[in-house]
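Our consortium's second objective concerns turning raw sequence data into structural hypotheses that experimental partners can test. To show how far this objective has progressed, the report includes one record in full. It was chosen at random from the queue rather than selected for favorable results. The single chain below, 402 residues long, was entered without modification.
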Amino acid sequence: MADPSTADVQAELKEYLNSKNINSLFIQIVERLLIEKPDNPIGFIVEYLAKRYPDETRAAKVGHAITQRTGSLASNLTSASSRVESEEEQTDSEDDEYLDDIDLQPTTVPKKIVRRESVSAEQVGANTKQPELKIVPKSDEESTRIHEILRENLLFKHLDSQQTDQVKDAMFLVQHEPDDVVIREGDAGDNFYVIDEGTFDVYIKKEGVETKVKSLGPGESFGELALMYSTPRSATCKAVTKARLWALDRISFKIILQATTTARRKQHKSFLESVPTLEQLTEYEILTIADALVEDSYEDGDVICTQGEVGDAFYIIKKGSASVIQTDALGESQEIAHLDMGHYFGEVALIFAQPRGATVKAVGPLQLLSLDRRTFKRVMGSMETILKRNMKAYKRIAASNI
């Protein structure tokens, strides 16, 4: 019989390993080592952990630096602080290529630097009382016109169909008479406007004198910076004729982005967990992928990727079907695979850096979740290993080398 104390210790150690996902971490590290086969495995592991878990490794570096430098707290505190900052700067430099993918929240702002207050800085969260978003009725013609304008606007063109619909629904009607000033240069800006009817002249001050710089008409928009920054208006916009505009305020825009982003994350997570090939991924990995996915919609016959082109994205079918068509050396084309919900394609071109081996077309309405090349390499390390290891499923779904 085992010593009770020994059994307790073993149980405690096992509980620690499970609670901290140590086994999963070791498996990830060993898998990356076997794939990359680095000459310096220790350095590779350090770099891998720094890139995959930047917050944790940075915190560990700071803690280690402080511990080493507190032998004499009174005399060494300043030195410790400067060295820690130096190490953090070095880490930031090493991870420079990942900065675009990390949510950096600055803790201090240097004095004498005036910065615009971003919409992300406004307190619109779970503990903040939020105004109720109202759906403002619009005719089909008005809805279509607003949709077209939003699709062409740089600020809105990245939104998915659900977000665009919510933005459109939240826009409220504003009416103006000739000579009315809608926005004035230097005033605080809160709303974004889409012109439904009427014309407007835009003025900016040059050497203290208002100068007309352009005119705007139906289908055009102005004031979008007010949705992103609490910044003074950069121009004056005055109605030339009787006019109707649709307006959206900054807080509503923020709430829409928060609500739809959270809902979409949960939806993507639930979907990814239902894909058999991804069942070996941890919850952290699933959430990382869910956050990075972009949803795309296609109609019947639309081409998603073309044989011979350079692969720049990986796709998972969320809803609908797709046909895989391959053309041989004689120019003869034939369907070699039919893909349905949960199937994926495009990974071969990204993993092995080779051109697309086939053309994929939508069969009826199709919804895809996609990752671009850079994001795929950053977040799909574990899945890349799974794809290579699960050769049976891999060959069945990706036999077309697309």
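The partners drew two points from this record. The chain has 14 helices and 16 strands. Residues 250-273 form the longest helix (24 residues). Both points have been shared with the crystallography group to help prioritize constructs.
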